[in-house]
Here is the input.
Amino acid sequence: MAEAERIIGTPDTPEAAGAEPEQGVSASPRGRRRIAVLFVVAVFAYTLDLVSKLLVVAKLEHHAPIEVFGDWLEFHAIRNPGAAFGFGAAFTVIFTMIAAAVIVVIARLARKLYSLPWAIALGLLLGGALGNLTDRIFRSPGIFQGEVVDFIAPKGFAVFNLADSAIVCGGILIVLLSFRGLDPDGTVHKD
Here is the structure.
């Protein structure tokens, strides 16, 4: 976690220089806006995922798949105990702990975030992780062993959900930002 904080750290803060933070000093208005963006994106992604899963469980589970674009895309409700593509079904508890750790790291590092694109990317990751963690905690077969509701089924590809989409989009955005040299603290570097 210290390495992640070092990466997200801001060069013009006392913490980044190794000094102790001053008592009572709050984040700058720019930093607070980035934190707000992160959490608004996370809440939006989480809410879309939660509502879609509630609808799928209520209307689609135990019914025939719905064709959206012929046989190229269907909505087909399944329960996934594993990770992406159904791998690791025996490790549901580990996936739960990983999702919880991602959420904690993003929440802790948010106060040092000064880049709008990074705020959006981390917000997508946070919302997606919260969406799948909610399933793992509250869905059957039990607490921390719950199966994730997946329903988007493209032809010849794995079935996934909106939380998975948010995580993948956030991850792709992070890779693109890293290639462009934009750091989470808002600085740009060229390697």
